[in-house]
Design brief:
Elements (H helix, E strand, L loop, with lengths): L1 H20 L24 H25 L2 E6 L9 E3 L16 E7 L19 E9 L1 E7 L14 E4 L17 E6 L2 E3 L11 E7 L1
Parallel strand pairs: 1-4, 5-9
Antiparallel strand pairs: 1-2, 3-4, 5-6, 7-8, 7-9
Length: 214
């Protein structure tokens, strides 16, 4: 009987020892799923890799949007006293959109120049943007038509005086001298101002000089 009890006791101890040698799983610790497929060689969780790739994609898309909105070169138009022309934003190698011609009273618009002492005209159909730049308007003083009202006087036997042209910003130059029987010519006037050969042209459009008699 004693031998049987001892043997049974040994068997029970061995069974207890075997049970104790197997660690129990802790239900509070979650299993980690490591890389499989394209991540097979990476000892990191799949969810972590997926999250990292998603962040990289978002950053790249954000950079593309940022540089699309903020990137490029500025083309500025200097009108030199003419009407304002809006700035353009373009990428390298693009063509500049030709704007409407600016307006400057007393001047004729001659085109856009890229600067320098001699005008180097910009070709909107061929020239391409290489960087930030300024296009400058080229102006030439306009020729202003001038008519004459002799008020009954005559020039070379005719009351009609041929129209002439003067240059804006320059003097009128030589003016006709009419004659009128019984009166003395006092000069040509415009809006109450006497106009002489030395008077600088400030009118920006066609106008009429009227003879005044004394």
């Amino acid at each position: 009987m004693k031998m049987d009890l001892k043997e049974n006791g040994l068997e029970e101890k061995e069974e207890i020892s075997d049970v104790q040698s197997v660690p129990e799983e802790n239900p509070m610790i979650k299993k980690r799923w490591f890389g499989r497929g394209i991540y097979g060689s990476k000892d990191v969780p799949i969810r972590l890799l997926d999250g990292f790739i998603a962040v990289v994609v978002v950053v790249i898309v954000g950079m593309i949007i940022f540089f699309t909105v903020t990137g490029g070169f500025y083309v500025t138009f200097e009108t030199g006293g003419g009407s304002e022309v809006a700035q353009q934003k373009l990428r390298h190698g693009e063509l500049v959109t030709e704007p409407e011609e600016p307006i400057r009273p007393g001047y004729d618009f001659g085109g856009w120049s890229v600067g320098g002492e001699e005008p180097l005209f910009w070709d909107f159909g061929e020239d391409k943007v290489q960087g930030d730049m300024t296009l400058t308007a080229v102006w030439t003083p306009a020729k202003i038509p001038v008519r004459f009202d002799t008020d009954g006087g005559m020039v070379n036997g005719s009351e009609t005086v041929e129209m002439t042209e003067v240059v804006f910003g320059e003097s009128y130059g030589e003016l006709p001298v009419p004659e009128k029987e019984g009166a003395e010519f006092a000069g040509w006037y415009y809006s109450g101002e006497k106009i002489t050969a030395d008077t600088v042209v400030t009118m920006t459009g066609e106008h009429v000089l009227t003879a005044v008699w004394e």
